[in-house]
Description:
The chain is α/β, with parallel strands linked by helices. It has helices at about 20-35, 60, 75-85, 100-110, 145-150, 165-195, 200-210, 215-225, 230-245, 250-265, and strands at about 15-20, 35-40, 55, 65-70, 95, 120-125, 135-140, 160.
Amino acid sequence: MGLVRLEQPSHSATVAVFGLGEAGSAIAEDLVRRGVRTVGWDPQPKRIPPNVTLAPNPAAAVAEADVVLVLTPARAAADVAQVLLPRLRDGQVYADGTSASPGQKRGTASILEPAGVLFADVALMAPVPGRGLRTPALASGPGAEAFAAWAGPLGMPVRVLGPEVGAASGRKLVRSIFMKGLAASAIEALRAAEALGCVDEVYRDVAQTLQEANDTLLRRLLEGTRTHAARRAQEMRDTVELLESLRVPARVARACVEWLDELATSR
């Protein structure tokens, strides 16, 4: 079997999905709905989507696959590549959709180089549950174009960044600083609010702020923080004092103090 035939993308490829967790199961289920023969592999699957064939072992999963889509935890990506290497064929599209770092993606690509696969560094740029194949993605690496040509007609918005492995994953992890940092900030604020007895009020306020967020808010945050860094650093020191009095870990608040102090002295 050669490269994926793209004229009938919903029926022309057999796909092996490695990792049937939250993301893998949702995408595998969508693939089946679109008529794609889908084989799954997970040593401990939480849920096997309807009509997804669970392979007895990794080798069987990729035996007839045109596209290999890896959605395991990032720490397992290199191990999966090592196990599959003897079973992969020249021209298969190998899409690493894990959240691994650019360096890890390049390491995985180098492991697979002898197999002649078309390696695609794929970064899923939104939560997969509720979206499935409609999850927007970035792709880079020698197999990025082939992955986009296959996944795009099936409903996945894929933007190709070029042939460099790591370009897609780098952008995803930069975005993760904001998204995961935002989550950490919300957790810390709500724990403090709970200790003060006003968690519902603070929850509604944070939710409304997120709902009304736009480019104007982002610019005000960036420009205002630089302009008023010294004053805001003191405000966050007072916040750390409050959190300590409430016995709430001030991890985010302390990091804010460090950033604001640096901004204040660099002006």
